[in-house]
Structure of 6-phospho-beta-glucosidase:
Amino acid sequence: MFYKELKKFPEHFLWGASTSAYQVEGAYNEDGKGMSVQDVHEPPEGITDFKIASDHYHHMKEDVKLMAELGLKAYRFSIAWTRILPNGAGEVNEKGVKFYNDLINELISHGIEPVVTMYHFDLPYELHKQGGWCNRKTIDAFVQYAKILFENYGDRVKYWLTINEQNVMINHPNAMNPGRLPTKKELYQQCHNMFVAAAKATILCHEMCPGGKIGPAPNITAIYPATCSPEDVIAADNWESIRCWLYLDVAVYGRYNSLVWAYLEEKGYTPVIEDGDMEIIAKAKPDYLGVNYYATATVSAARNDGTDCQPRNGDQQVMIGEEGVYRAAKNDHLEITDFGWMVDSIGMRVTLRRVYDRYHLPILITENGLGAKDELGEDGKIHDDYRIDYLKRHFHQAQLAVTDGVDLIGYCPWAFIDLVSTHQGYGKRYGFVYVNRGEDDLKDMRRICKDSYYWYKEVIKRNGIEE
Ligand code: BG6
């Protein structure tokens, strides 16, 4: 389809930015916070842990002021479950409740819409020790946690996201499971229990928060076949269903994707589904979909000769292949970042069109951005023109998706501020705002606005990139 004229981004478009609690807050053991699986995570040699991060916990007001100066319409952040319930369930930590209450009030006083992720990779360690998501007690704990959030913040928070990247937690489980890595069978049980927990929270949100909107936030990407060989097309179809559609089909249609169910049966990975689970899942109706998009993936047919699975490096955007199911293929049409992630702005349009076409629900881009080795220059500035270029291309494709008819309600790049990347610490930065610290050397934690910050400010003011 060719268009003479691009549609404008809608009025009240939620130009935002994202972070997650464990990657930005620090203060990992302060004011009654309990340990999460991320707090016990041992980073590789030379990479920082998540204990201090960008110390947002102690810089909250200063950071929100920078958001306001940027002109953000929305801020997507996550709540640390262990600040609210240090043991995952049971006793409530009032100081933790207060921190997010203050943050939400601060955002609202600056006209910034809070978009709250309830759970972003930081399962309470106490729950983990009792089996984590394999144990159905974690579903009850999540429901208790959800109730506390809705009771305390439901009067002001209109946009809720249940679980960040459930599909990444299942497909790349290493960073979320300290100790023994779960088997695939266990992972799909975790996955099912998360579906039930998210469904219960969705129903609760609708009961407890008048006007509240809630949805999932998976990492979704179109999967391309390496060639037009029908075998490659089938492999791409299979992997797109296993990686992406499973998660949105359960959330939106309230049923398992049939291709994926057949795969689970064949492999012996089917989860135990208790009586009533599917009724709860079917009853829970999301109001919108969060989509984290970084890059497409290209796959070819599996050879099933013991070589389909490539060595895993844990990165969520790097496909690893699965014996007999698909194998990762190279896409010579795309560039890659310094960290091996594909850059595919048009792929974002493809992805948004596919998601909207399947589900017909409003979409909020909850993450997208460029991880780079930003350097503080001698002039005291960060000239991240590569990030501006990346975002400009993606914003353009988002606008094309809007022109295609996709109901896109907002765009929250990752990240508002530099934070600890899931695998590469501060060596891989995403923020509009630089944090002056190294891996070990905390320096002065000063906030410095990058060139991309000033560029994004103009985009927001104009409600879009220049024509
Ligand atoms: C998403 C996660 O998968 O990608 C974020 O939701 C993460 O938590 C982001 O930081 C970028 O990934 P990374 O590995 O570069 O930090």
In short: The longest helix spans residues 184-208. The first strand starts at residue 14 and ends at 18.
